[in-house]
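User: Sequence recovery, please. Input:
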């Protein structure tokens, strides 16, 4: 499982002209599910996302998590994160999970995130989404399980 997190001042997802998810300050998570991912990978990724210290404390150091600041979490499915990019000029997707498996893990991730964090918004799995964000920093990290 791969998660690209971006510290944002605000972010939203629109599908067919309708806003499906929106947050203020927090984390935009682009989530890619790979073959072989399961509950263990999901648990590790969720723990990392909610506890990764990328927000500044009073001394200006990255010491606070999204949970610490009561920020929002916008979760967007992104199968292209599972792409193979080391060779050639065209990405391969043989390591990406099948759509049904990926959707089930994505939905489970969102459900568990909502159990553990008060402000969780989403895109729509498999949809053509328009994502808008104001990256704060910019601060972006690739998390892998």
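Assistant: Recovered sequence (145 residues):
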């Amino acid at each position: 499982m791969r998660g690209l997190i971006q510290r944002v001042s605000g972010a939203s997802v629109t599908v067919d002209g309708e806003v499906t998810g929106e947050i203020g300050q927090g984390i935009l998570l682009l989530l890619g599910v790979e073959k072989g991912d399961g509950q263990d990978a999901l648990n590790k990724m969720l723990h990392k996302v909610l506890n990764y210290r990328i927000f500044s404390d009073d001394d200006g150091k990255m010491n606070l998590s999204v949970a610490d600041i009561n920020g929002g979490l916008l979760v967007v499915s992104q199968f292209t994160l599972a792409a193979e990019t080391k060779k050639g000029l065209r990405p391969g997707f043989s390591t990406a999970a099948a759509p049904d498996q990926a959707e089930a893990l994505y939905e489970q991730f969102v459900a568990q995130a909502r159990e553990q964090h008060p402000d969780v918004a989403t895109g729509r799995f498999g949809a053509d989404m328009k994502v808008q964000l104001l990256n704060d920093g910019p601060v972006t990290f690739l998390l892998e399980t």
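DSSP finds two helices and eight strands in the chain.
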